[in-house]
Design a protein that fits this description.
The radius of gyration is 13 Å and the shape is globular. It contains four helices and two strands; from the N terminus they run αααβαβ. The chain has one domain. Helices cover 55% and strands 13% of the residues. By secondary structure, the protein is of the alpha+beta class. The chain starts with a helix and ends in a 5-residue tail after the last strand.
Length: 76
């Protein structure tokens, strides 16, 4: 398991993720996901996103009033 965590941590470091851009792009490139999330999760709901990576969906949901907590094998 430690090897998996290290591999993901290395991949995350190399990715140089622009989180604001990732959140913005959900509306453009992930319209089906945005539609699904909007239909099922409303302001006031509490969501746990497991394996959240950069937490882009958590941040996207939080901007819409949904309390979203993300967990991932890589703490960063």
């Amino acid at each position: 398991m430690e090897e998996v965590r290290e591999d993901w941590a290395l991949a995350y470091e190399k990715a140089k993720i622009d989180l604001e851009r990732e959140i913005h792009d959900i509306n453009i490139f992930d319209r089906n996901i945005a539609k699904f999330l909007s239909e099922f999760f409303k302001a006031g709901h509490l969501v746990l996103e497991a394996g959240c990576g950069a937490r882009r969906f958590c941040f996207w949901l939080n901007k819409r009033g949904v309390s979203c907590i993300g967990i991932d094998i890589v703490p960063s």
